[in-house]
Amino acid sequence: MPEELAEGERRHGAVAGGRAVDPPVVDAHEGSVRGEPDVALDGIGPILNGLKVGGEAVLGLVLIGPTMRHDLGDSPGNGLAAHLPSLPQTPDRDRGLAAGAWQDDRVQRLVLFDLDGTLTDAAPGIVSSLLYALDEMGIEHPDDATIATFLGPPLKDTFGGYFGMDEAGIDAAIAHYRVRYNDVGLFENEVYPGIPDLLARLTGAGFTLATSTSKPTVSATRILEHFSLAQHFTFIGGASLDSERNSKAEVIAHTLDELNALGTDTSAGSITMVGDRQHDVLGAAQFGIPAIGVLWGYGSRAELEGAGAVATADDVGHLGRLLS
Question: What is the pTM of this model?
Fold first, then answer.
């Protein structure tokens, strides 16, 4: 058993190389790029304290403290989530985020990034490992269009929801998936062009960056370190091996709690989520956090806008402009 897997049983956080990381965990879900190497970030500034369309403010950002987050359910209708503001349902894909919102330099600028389909194209390794697991379970492969829908959501949702497996079957399928993914599939992966420059410019401009990915933390950490991206992130937040932290909302809550523990005042600043699937948008909405959808990953414009993304980015340069 790889050392990372054994360490995945630990329940406490750790700090490695001066950067905080989660208790190690191993993998959950992971396409092709239409990005640009050149990222224009002229005067990186405001994010989402107020969104204006036609001169009228349409969004007020609400942040909640860590003790309140644990009361949120997995859907926007549960618990405190029912009282959070709804996001615009028909965003203009080209509108930017309000200039002038960051007039106080003391206000923290925090961006939560999804990983697969947002920072890296992990589809080859995910698909190959998923098909390996199905072969081991004696299950016929779905068609390519169906397989594409498995990129993004947690593996537990795929094996349980689509294939109808019970808990024992889900556990067995995930174990087979990890046999291949941990040693091979993890690195059948590449960074989207322009992402390293974007992350460097954001951190250089004073943004705090963290991940909130459905991939277990140890896999996310290994990928970010392999591609020399980990240094840009204050915290690498991901799912847990024991499925106690599985949904996007649970991962976001965990990430915000850990950032608070590290001294990041999430209640005093503005936050945005950046991701490629509806799960990123809907999970962020449970905390009143607006989301930008990216179109180079695994989701479509219709999916992201239908979930309530406040904007969609056609390429990495466009994302940079939305964050400026």
Answer: 0.67
